């Protein structure tokens, strides 16, 4: 009989997961999601790159001003059908806004932009506002006014026409709906170190680290006759939890391996380093570093990065290691490890992608009129936004 690995169930305090790192979803159109996020939600495009496992698919990263808070990312897989929400699925992402009054502002903004939304309500003592995009992707805004955990690390995008006092500053709780809620509860508590923090109807709140809006997951019980989810555009691909750096990530890789959950091992995404783990059918978690990835840190050490030193790289968003903050998002970026020195392959990769124009990624929008969903849908992919009346 093979020797069993001894599992240390208690997680050292310095290795505790930090909360939600990013959420990655699937869109029907890279151009439309770019327009929706920048011109309606007021988030910046921090990086335009490709899916590192499928080079014919874009990967767009949207954040707040400094690239540390509201990382919502999208794939635009070619010819993928519309997905279905339901059982065994990551159902909804949340964005943090400063106050309850911010939700009143966003209700009016959504009305004027013709964004489908619900009414302001409360979940676990926090005011929330649910809404969806043109694909039926599900989101909510959550007020930080009564947040009990860490303050948001982000600040709203300075070039947005959303008033700074109401802008999105980070990611909030992510909703997961599964058939076997008890099994996932065990994994959250035993493997990942989450704490059970309460129940409201069919929702169960779990917190990690200092808890609060930025370090929470909400487990939703599935109804008896509810349909099973399947992935496609309008659904979430995976969610990521944060860990400090590549050294702490190694701890999590070994821990997950010891619990014998299906996992990827170390994957360097350049912008951060990662480990992927399947926690339930249809539900994929990632653990990602808050520092740039191993390849990006090596670039900084070699003096070839867009930062002045390795020490600066450690506190800079990984999006701005191969491009400066002022350059990033304006054009396609391909991490060096994908195509080392192969310019011809890079050119073919860029040519295989669908048309997309992000040339106005750093345009000052503070005095722009609000876009509507209709304008988003009318914008032809790859054409400058100024041509849309």
UniProtKB/TrEMBL annotation:
Record PROSITE patterns: VOC
Keywords: Dioxygenase, Lyase, Oxidoreductase
GO MF: dioxygenase activity; lyase activity
Domain of life: Bacteria
Coiled coil: none
Domain VOC: start-end pairs: 19-144, 170-290
Pfam families membership: Glyoxalase (PF00903)
InterPro entries: Extradiol_RC_dioxygenase (IPR052537), Glyas_Bleomycin-R_OHBP_Dase (IPR029068), Glyas_Fos-R_dOase_dom (IPR004360), VOC_core (IPR037523)
Name of this chain's protein: Glyoxalase family protein
Originating species: Lactococcus lactis subsp. lactis (Streptococcus lactis)
